[in-house]
Amino acid sequence: MENRFLDKIETNAVVRIWSKKT
Q1: pLDDT at 1 over 80
Q2: How many helices (H) and strands (E) does the chain have?
Q3: Quick check: helix, strand or coil at residue 20?
Q4: Torsional class of 10: left (φ above 0), alpha (ψ -120 to 50), beta (otherwise)
Q5: What per-residue confidence (pLDDT) applies to 8?
Q6: In the predicted model, is pLDDT for residue 11 greater than 90?
Q7: How much is the pLDDT for 5?
Q8: Which domain of life is it from (predicted)?
Q9: How many CA atoms lie within 13 A of 9 on its CB side?
């Protein structure tokens, strides 16, 4: 459960960084 939550947060962070990069 926690692993999935962390994974989702990490993905969100990556997407945010990607959005900022572009």
Answers
A1: no
A2: 1, 0
A3: helix
A4: alpha
A5: 96
A6: yes
A7: 92
A8: Eukaryota
A9: 6
